[in-house]
């Protein structure tokens, strides 16, 4: 029977684009299908901040950061906490290979694609436990110059060159609902053709069916993303060890991140592992200018804000801003409330609040040096100021009594007692004058400022939050924001999908979030951040190369 192409790629997000670009480079023909309209090409990566995990890079060295592959491996393993004999078999191998990639050819490969980085390296997931525990021992978060769109562009361009050369056929509004076999090889992709849609990028497009399709190819790559936009699935797969899922959650991803393709692959015999591992943020704020439903933005916080629970009590050590995402999530969901608060002041918000998302960083996304300098000089950066002015979660007041009234008005109850919150802030402020201090957050802030990058643009000089010169006071209500699946389709190092018996399913490959970014869960339980886009690059490239080789 005739094939329609050498390979079918499902999903035109970053992983699918990278895989397709590799297939084009090898001269293979590809049908690239996506349920969304063409204007949403690039998937989540378009919206992303473009942060990439790199190890021992020139950017790090210029910032006097000493890093190396052994330290990165130690951090990765301490963070992942792999503990499953079967399900972690391939994730462990992927983790090893990925750390080598991040410390090796990743940067030069990206530079060959014209990708450059912002010179100040960020320090995400700082940990706060022992040296072998969770977190980055050193800053490793490299921001792509041009953020997410800047990372997508060179791969999209290669795919479009493939279209011009007659190698690639783009099939948008094609929603896959089934995978089929001929003689044991998975070679058939079928589904619904959805009606044309003019929905703007990121907004929900219609699911009205206008027809049906069936394509055949020698190999199929699933690059359909994760489950973060499907709260029903997030709740169904929510791990018991994290307590009950919050009653309300914001969405950090568009609705097309629906996870349905994972079930379709499972029904075709694929092994779908580590489904209970996921990565959701605890610093979510409601977008005052939403693109998708329940649209939340993640604050990428510096370390100084006081993080208090719904009743105004500080979170336990080391749950400081930017230290341990999942530890904080676990604490919050077992607290009985869905929200927490950052309490801070103008000085801290001006220096320490960054917002994740390409559209929230027009200076970096637009590659504007002038814009970046303007941000560094601004009292409060424009996008953060817009949230202060319009955001439903922000309270800005000159004195603490008014701040507490505002906080209680936001939640519609009297959960915060001014005396409780005042006691926490006064006690913390007193430690600013104590050169020794037993307050580990104060110690962490002092430590952070020993890193040039933090001192320059990420960590405010230690000061009293109640000092009127640092005011006004600010409180930000934070909610859980769904984002990533860490589990996924189990794959070997060639991105071949394994069946439930552990052997490769002939013809089927997976990449990106659908493959748990490689192996079905390269992150284990937790991430060091900036590892997701890199996981799409690494696993997308592996899938494209392996499929190109297989269909020769
Ligand atoms: C705001 C934001 C900021 C982020 N910042 C960072 C960051 O700084 N660093 C980092 O490492 N990561 C970041 N991420 C995460 C990262 O962007 C994603 O994990 C990654 O882009 C996922 O890419 P993907 O190709 O696997 O999936 P997706 O981008 O989800 O693409 C999958 C595609 O498959 C299509 N599809 C799904 N099912 C079907 C079907 N049945 N039929 C046809 N098509 C289908 C979808 O429509 C979609 O286009 C961020 C994400 C967001 C949203």
UniProtKB/TrEMBL annotation:
Gene3D superfamilies: FAD/NAD(P)-binding domain (3.50.50.60), Succinate dehydrogenase/fumarate reductase flavoprotein, catalytic domain (3.90.700.10). Keywords: Flavoprotein, Oxidoreductase. Residues 6-533 form the FAD-dependent oxidoreductase 2 FAD-binding domain. Coiled coil: none annotated. It comes from the Bacteria. Pfam families: FAD_binding_2 (PF00890). One of its GO terms (molecular function) is steroid dehydrogenase activity, acting on the CH-CH group of donors. This is FAD-binding dehydrogenase.
């Amino acid at each position: 029977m005739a094939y329609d192409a050498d390979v079918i790629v499902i999903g035109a997000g970053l992983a699918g684009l990278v895989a397709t670009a590799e297939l084009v480079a090898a001269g293979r023909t590809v049908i690239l299908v996506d349920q969304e309209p063409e204007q949403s090409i690039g998937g989540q990566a378009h919206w992303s901040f473009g942060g990439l995990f790199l190890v021992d890079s020139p950017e790090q060295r210029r910032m006097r950061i000493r890093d190396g592959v052994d330290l990165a491996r130690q951090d990765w393993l301490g963070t992942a906490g792999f503990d499953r004999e079967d399900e972690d078999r391939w994730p462990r191998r992927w983790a090893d290979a990925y750390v080598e990639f991040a410390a090796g050819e990743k940067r030069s490969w990206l530079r060959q694609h014209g990708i450059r980085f912002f010179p100040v390296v960020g320090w995400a997931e700082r940990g706060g436990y022992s040296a072998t525990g969770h977190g980055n021992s050193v800053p490793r978060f490299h921001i792509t110059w041009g953020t997410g769109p800047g990372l997508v562009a060179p791969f999209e361009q290669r795919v479009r060159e493939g279209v011009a050369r007659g190698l690639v056929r783009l099939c948008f509004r094609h929603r896959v609902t089934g995978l089929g076999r001929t003689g044991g090889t998975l070679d058939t992709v079928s589904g619904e053709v959805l009606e044309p849609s003019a929905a703007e990028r990121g907004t929900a497009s219609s699911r009205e069916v206008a027809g049906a399709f069936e394509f055949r190819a020698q190999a199929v790559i699933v690059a359909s993303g994760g489950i973060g936009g499907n709260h029903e699935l997030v709740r169904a797969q929510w791990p018991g060890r994290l307590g009950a899922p919050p009653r309300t959650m914001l969405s950090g991803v568009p609705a097309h991140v629906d996870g349905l393709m994972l079930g379709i692959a499972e029904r075709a015999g694929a092994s779908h592992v580590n489904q209970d591992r996921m990565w959701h943020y605890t610093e979510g704020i409601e977008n005052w200018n939403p693109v998708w439903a329940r649209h939340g933005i993640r604050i990428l916080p510096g370390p100084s804000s006081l993080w208090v629970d719904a009743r105004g009590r500080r979170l336990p050590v080391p749950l400081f801003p930017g230290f341990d995402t999942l530890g904080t999530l676990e604490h919050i969901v077992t607290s009985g409330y869905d929200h927490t608060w950052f309490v801070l002041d103008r000085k801290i918000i001006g220096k320490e609040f960054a917002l994740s998302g390409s559209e929230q960083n027009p200076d970096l996304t637009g590659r504007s040096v002038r814009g970046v300098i303007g941000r560094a000089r601004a009292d409060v950066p424009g996008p953060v100021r817009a949230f202060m002015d319009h955001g439903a979660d922000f309270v800005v007041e000159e004195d603490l009594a008014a701040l507490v009234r505002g906080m209680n008005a936001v939640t519609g109850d009297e959960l915060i007692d001014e005396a409780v919150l005042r006691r926490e802030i006064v006690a913390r402020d007193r430690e600013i004058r104590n050169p020794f201090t037993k307050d580990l957050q104060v110690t962490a802030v002092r430590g952070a400022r020993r890193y040039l990058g933090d001192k320059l643009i990420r960590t405010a000089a230690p000061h009293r939050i109640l000092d009127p010169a640092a005011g006004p006071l600010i409180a930000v209500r934070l909610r859980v924001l769904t984002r990533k699946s860490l589990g996924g389709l189990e794959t070997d190092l060639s991105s071949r999908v394994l069946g439930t018996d552990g052997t490769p399913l002939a013809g089927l490959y997976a990449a990106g979030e659908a493959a748990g970014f490689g192996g079905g869960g390269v992150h284990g339980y937790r991430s060091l951040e900036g590892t997701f886009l890199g996981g799409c690059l690494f696993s997308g490239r592996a899938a494209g190369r392996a499929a190109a080789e297989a269909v020769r």
